Amino acid sequence: MSRRAxxxxxxxxxxxxxxxxxxxxxxxxxxxxxxxxxxCLTDRDPMCGxxxxxxxxxxxxxxxxxxxxxxxxxxxxxxxxAAQQGSALIQPVSSDLLAGGAGYEPTxxxxxxxxxxxxxxxxxxxxxxxxxRLVPIHHVRIDALTGTSGxxxxxxxxxxxxxxxxxxxxxxxxxxxxxxxxxxxDYAWTSDDPSIAEILSSPSTDEITIRGxxxxxxxxxVTIGGVEGAILVLVPASPGGSP
Length: 243
Fold this sequence. Notes:
Number of helices: 2
Strand content: 35-45%
Largest sheet: 6 strands, antiparallel
Radius of gyration: 21 Å
Structural class: mainly beta
Oligomer: single chain
Shape: elongated
Helix content: under 10%
Number of strands: 19
């Protein structure tokens, strides 16, 4: 199914207050009266990057973990029988864990580590609930993707590219086990020596493009939510050239 067709299908189903069978079914609530859907608020959320099936602003399955400091949206779609009774308001159980207040599709921010509950309410009655684990950022993981122009050799914590070659770097906030955490966070990329590795794209997204320059080595860094990660970039000298 094309992305345009998927969007049309989801929009129609949203009007019926149910999650679409033609797209992501969201995550069933713990009382099984409906499904909760996750909403990426920016392209800085690794849950819904440009290559994901569900772009920014569309609902998808709830993640198991969200980074402390991360921002996200959430919606609830009742089952077909429960939907006949009207829409349900979403409210965090604890504002100390999730800030943002109640709403039909609230924007929430993970404030501190914990196991945060979300209630779907109709008046004073609980229609359904779900829990999300909020985890502090342990480290930043940087991955080098296949070179988009020229060749790239990718190592564990380094990438070697030729002069004038382009390579994409992507980064994400990770927990202690290395799992990438959900949530929109602030990104800031820098290159210690732009004459060796020049950042060509916006430095405030989760993915950048770098271009190899003069021979040498330098470090490209990214800070996500106050935690820094780094990758070594090497540009080898051309055969017969000086290092």
